[in-house]
């Protein structure tokens, strides 16, 4: 099936692609995530992002928070271990020729976790960059264990959200000037986070450092980013017995930060751009879709 529309509809952002004859004719994006509808209905936002596209004539597959209890229509969480190549058979119908991809979940005494949207990227990664461990950085970073076609387990680390909260709603960010890129500050934070897992104590030192002149006030964001990413990567204790490199699914800018962290720990890594993983995953679902 070569004609279709794909939507990645998250909490804060919405992206859409229109494919014809297997080629992307047009892509669009907006900040109308499911938590930012601004009084509009999901249908109204959908109509806006797909205006002049043949939504009634081609399949439309949507993934992400659009399928949450805050989204357009709740789609289930599929319990892990879960074979990703069965996603197309477990879509939630959202209208004529419209479907929502289910999320994944883990529910054990030692781990309760959910994901939405990332499962589609993981499906794409199975073909483009398969690995036993797949890391998906972001607001809520996912560390995913895979065995062949199956997702067996995953953890979520709130690295990106914690960075935002500390910088904008905590004492660490109080009274700071506009932040500037500082590669050296990021690297120093990275090394600190990797080599010292006492994160709670180190967090207070972020403020103390710039008050005492050991860190430029405009470099706090990059130092804090390095500290949190370093702690995230070191805390997951990647097994040295992995049969191949870790796959990193991320934007180019975020990938560079995590690549630096993995390099300090001598962990081999392969990078897969997030949009490419998502679009390939949607294409696999479309190919398996039974109309």
Task: Please outline the helices and strands.
Blueprint: E1 4-9, E2 14-20, E3 23-30, H1 42-49, E4 60-63, E5 77-79, E6 82-83, E7 92-95, E8 98-100, E9 103-108, E10 111-115, H2 118-128, E11 133-136, E12 141-147, E13 150-157, H3 159-169, H4 183-195, H5 199-211, H6 220-235, E14 246-250, H7 252-264, E15 269-273, H8 274-288
Parallel strand pairs: 1-4, 4-8, 5-9, 11-14, 14-15
Antiparallel strand pairs: 1-2, 2-3, 6-13, 7-8, 9-10, 11-12, 12-13
Largest sheet: 6 strands, mixed
Oligomer: single chain
Low-confidence stretches: none
**Class by SSE composition:** alpha/beta
The proportion of residues in beta strands is 25-35%
Mean pLDDT across the residues is 95
So what's the overall shape?
globular
Helix coverage percent: 25-40%
Largest sheet: spatial strand order = 3-2-1-4-8-7
Order of helices and strands: EEEHEEEEEEEHEEEHHHHEHEH
Topology, number of strands: 15
For the terminal residues, how far apart are their CA atoms? 10 Å
Q: What's the total helix number?
A: 8
Walkthrough of the structure:
This protein is α/β, with parallel strands linked by helices and 291 residues long. It is built from 8 helices and 15 strands. The protein has helices spanning 42-49, 118-128, 159-169, 183-195, 199-211, 220-235, 252-264, 274-288; strands spanning 4-9, 14-20, 23-30, 60-63, 77-79, 82-83, 92-95, 98-100, 103-108, 111-115, 133-136, 141-147, 150-157, 246-250, 269-273. The strands form 3 sheets. Strands 3-2-1-4-8-7 form a 6-stranded mixed sheet, with helices on one face. A 6-stranded mixed sheet has the order 6-13-12-11-14-15, with helices on both faces. A hairpin with a 2-residue loop joins strand 2 (14-20) and strand 3. Helix 2 (118-128) packs across helix 8 (274-288), helix 4 packs parallel to helix 6 and helix 5 (199-211) packs antiparallel against helix 6. It starts with a strand and ends with a helix.
